[in-house]
Amino acid sequence: MDTDASAAMAASHRLTHRLEEATRLLDCIPYDLIALVARLSIAGVFWRSGQTKVEGWHVTDTAFYLFETEYRLPFVSPWIGAHLAAFAEHLFPVLLVIGLASRLSALALLGMTLVIEILVYPDVWPTHGTWAACLLLIAARGSGRFSLDHLLSRRWKTRAD
C-alpha cells in the first residue's frame, strides 16, 4: 500500500472517530431539555398569533375580517372561528409552558396546524412542518421532567403505591 493511500485511510479513520464522538456527545442531551425547548418555542409561536387576534378580552374586528375573507374555514362561521382560535392560541400555549396536559395541548395545536396547512396556507408547509415536529415530539414522548405533568404523575404513583 502506498503512502498516499495509507494517509487517506488514517484520515478517514480519524474522521469516523470524531463523528462517533460527536454523536455520543449529542446522545447525552437530555430529553427533558429537548422537550422544554420544544414546549416553550411552539408555545411562543401560538401565543403571539393569539395576541394578534385580541385587544384586552375582546376578539378584534381584524380577526373577524381575516376569518371572513382570508381563512374562510368551511363549516365554521367567522365569528366562532375567530373566538375559538383566539381561545386556543392562548390556553394551549400556557398549558405547554407550565407543562400541564401537555400531550393534549400538543394534539390540539397540531390539529390547528393541520387545519391551517390544509385549508388556509398550504404553501407554508416548511413552517408548519417545523411546528408539527415540536408538537409531535411532545404528544409522543410527553413534556419531560420540567413540567407539572411530571410532578403530578410522581405524586399519583406514590399514592398508588
From TrEMBL:
Keyword terms: Cell membrane, Membrane, Transmembrane, Transmembrane helix
Top-level taxon of origin: Bacteria
Cross-referenced InterPro entries: DoxX, DoxX-like_oxidoreductase
GO cellular component: plasma membrane
Subcellular location: Cell membrane
Keyword Secreted: no
Pfam families (alphabetical): DoxX
Membrane topology type: Multi-pass membrane protein
Similarity remark: Belongs to the DoxX family.
Annotated PANTHER family: INNER MEMBRANE PROTEIN YPHA-RELATED, OXIDOREDUCTASE CATD-RELATED
This protein's name: Putative oxidoreductase
The organism of origin for this protein: Mycoplana azooxidifex
